[in-house]
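Worked example 2:
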Amino acid sequence: MLREFAPSARLAPWVEVFWTRDAFTSDAAVTQRVLPDGCADIVFADAAAVAVGTMTSPLVLTETRAPALLGVRFRPGRAPLGVPLAEITDARVPLGDLWHGDSLGERVAEASTTARQIEIVENALLIRAGETIDKQIDYAVDCPSPAARASNRSRASSASRGSTSAAASWSASASARRPSRAWHASGASSTRRGASAVRSGPASPPTSATPTSRTSSPSSANSPAAPRFHFSYRRERGAPILGA
């Protein structure tokens, strides 16, 4: 049976999970397929520790008997094995060769519980976990796929269009509730332009309205037509025109 255990918070940036597999013996051969996952592992079995590099093809295991296993699965690009991971791709290397004769496998085998074994491994990894982290690998692992990025852009665009439509609806509603500033401005301008004095002779009055005329006095009846001033005060919205 395969079990998984979360790493401590201090080791979580490097370790994805600890895992164990029980020992088994079977009369018939048991076939297991291990698929590539982009991760490197350290596997402990029978007092030995082996570094397993990232795989580029599935690994098929056919066994009738297998020992108990303890494994450490590292996050992509985060295995502090002391060598570039490209050098051990598709390879299995004794951990002592990478860590200069370290006896971590023997110390793990001496522990009586899984919790104690994981504690020993964590302490050893924390000593080496200060190695430089490759930010480019982190970005490649964490960034969304092209399809996910396209979906995110589509949702953002839809949200933006919805906000613009809501703002336009609110603006139209607000405009309907209050008088138009443009109307007031044009009305005031028209009123100022309408209040004008126009010097004219005996010309006919404006066609838009018939102004009232004052009766001329007898003394000026036979005199030449005197100049007259016509004053009109024009208002908006169909108000009458007053003349004098």
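Residues 146-177 form the longest helix (32 residues). Confidence is low (pLDDT under 50) at residues 180-201, 208-221, 229-233.
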